[in-house]
What we know:
Blueprint: H1 3-11, H2 19-33, E1 39-42, E2 49-53, E3 66-67, H3 74-89, H4 98-119, H5 127-148, E4 153-164, E5 167-182, E6 185-195, H6 200-214, E7 220-226, E8 228-233, E9 236-241
Amino acid sequence: MKLSQLLKYAKDKTNFTSIDDYSTFGEMYLSFIYENLQAVIVSQNETQYRFFQYKKDGNFNVTRPINSDLLISINDFSESKNTFIYAMKHIKDIKEETNIRKTINKFIYTCQQSIGATLDALPSGESNTARKINGDLFERYIRLVLTELGISVRDGKVPVPVVVDGEELFKMVYQHDLIIEKGSELKAIGSVKTSSKDRLGKIFIDKFLFNCLTNIETPHFAVFLHDVQRKGREPKFGINTTFLTGH
């Protein structure tokens, strides 16, 4: 498959409505990079990270940092997919199976980073569009995984009453990526982001405010795809962590 075809596929969010759709794209991307890259650049400071440079059809763009310890090779993808599918159906039976846990992480990372890395081939004028698509698809992917595990989850708004001196004055409405419910009872609230930059502190603030306003200790959690970003100039690229100082 050509890069232009991968880009067209990745930009259409209707192509990603099931876990299998993400798997299919991940496998297509891994097959593409096997012999169609201009170069693979190794990070100067953290050598497990790689940057893929596309040829002319990808504007010679360089991708986001890709963790080679997590990216599954095309030769191992099929076996990893089978393990992932097994894990989704037998998750309650998996306790100390460290290798299966690693495969779950690596499989989700590989499928999602395949989308992000593909979108990195877009011209610079479309970078905001690429980030939006990638973020939306990661949120959808995590919801699909949780649903496959039998967890009732959705995105949407949660109204929070503001009570002063025992009287409810109004409700504040918050948008959340993951709302986990059991029947009509709210069990947990989750945040899904492709990067931790500028977002980690907000999750703690959201939890603090929500629990104070509702007087209920509702658990909050977050899922981040990665916590690094590219630094430096070609070909001497390196990585920086995205955790902010003081956070």
